[in-house]
Amino acid sequence: MKQRIISAIVFGAIFLPVIILGGTPVVILAYLLASIALYELLKMRKLSIVSVPGIISLLLLWIFLLPNQFQDVLEIIHFTKIEFVLLAVLLFLTYTVATKNKFTFDDVAFSVLATLYVGIGFYYFIETREAGLIYLFFSLFIIWATDSGAYFIGRAIGKRKLWPEISPNKTIEGSLGGVFCALIVAILFLLFTDIRATFLQLSIITGVLSVFGQIGDLVESALKRHYDVKDSGKIMPGHGGILDRFDSLLFVWPLIHFIFLF
């Protein structure tokens, strides 16, 4: 626990000032975190980031992460992000032939989906911060409250397993407790910030985000169980890798952007 607390403090001391500052530093941070997360995902599949498919995946990720204010770069070459994805698929499939199927069709599917999984989440991290610091803080506090509530309430009164085949320690009581704690945080945001929502709207939004945050956590747990790894990485002692810390937020950031800003 001591190691987890120290790691969290060190990471928070870097992460929080950057998101408060906003702008280019947030973009740089997103590129760094997403690149590490993609490396962790490819490593699960035993694919190297310093290989032809690894480099294609990384370049596609960097293109996908381009925020709206840099869209002019793509317009110069008359390519959309979707067209780059299609081009990457063609290159991946070509590589399966070049390697005589050592790099398989399944590897192609994994590489494309891994890139989109990470890219979509961190792209909306950038866009959510661009829309306003309040939305980013809201997402962070909702997930922290959900995780903490699920952990402590689950340990105290949890009896019924939530999804034992995926994550044996999670309970239904803990999951509901996480949603309850998230709702408390939402009420505090409603009372002490200028977030644009009524009590009913924010309650529904918070419930949806809390549930999907937990689904994001389970998705990464399923990945790790499938590939028989304990943690996605070791960059944060006591916490694991970047994916281990951001799995919930990769689901929440796109949703909070759609719900609040569309």
From TrEMBL:
<comment type="similarity">
    <text>Belongs to the CDS family.</text>
</comment>
<feature type="transmembrane region" description="Helical">
    <location>
        <begin position="6"/>
        <end position="34"/>
    </location>
</feature>
<feature type="transmembrane region" description="Helical">
    <location>
        <begin position="46"/>
        <end position="64"/>
    </location>
</feature>
<keyword id="KW-0808">Transferase</keyword>
<keyword id="KW-0594">Phospholipid biosynthesis</keyword>
<dbReference type="Pfam" id="PF01148">
    <property type="entry name" value="CTP_transf_1"/>
</dbReference>
<keyword id="KW-1208">Phospholipid metabolism</keyword>
<feature type="transmembrane region" description="Helical">
    <location>
        <begin position="132"/>
        <end position="153"/>
    </location>
</feature>
<keyword id="KW-0548">Nucleotidyltransferase</keyword>
<keyword id="KW-0812">Transmembrane</keyword>
<feature type="transmembrane region" description="Helical">
    <location>
        <begin position="76"/>
        <end position="96"/>
    </location>
</feature>
<feature type="transmembrane region" description="Helical">
    <location>
        <begin position="108"/>
        <end position="126"/>
    </location>
</feature>
<keyword id="KW-0472">Membrane</keyword>
<comment type="pathway">
    <text>Phospholipid metabolism; CDP-diacylglycerol biosynthesis; CDP-diacylglycerol from sn-glycerol 3-phosphate: step 3/3.</text>
</comment>
<keyword id="KW-0443">Lipid metabolism</keyword>
<keyword id="KW-0444">Lipid biosynthesis</keyword>
<feature type="transmembrane region" description="Helical">
    <location>
        <begin position="174"/>
        <end position="193"/>
    </location>
</feature>
<keyword id="KW-1133">Transmembrane helix</keyword>
<feature type="transmembrane region" description="Helical">
    <location>
        <begin position="199"/>
        <end position="219"/>
    </location>
</feature>
<dbReference type="GO" id="GO:0016779">
    <property type="term" value="F:nucleotidyltransferase activity"/>
</dbReference>
<comment type="pathway">
    <text>Lipid metabolism.</text>
</comment>
<keyword id="KW-1003">Cell membrane</keyword>
<protein>
    <recommendedName>
        <fullName>Phosphatidate cytidylyltransferase</fullName>
        <ecNumber>2.7.7.41</ecNumber>
    </recommendedName>
</protein>
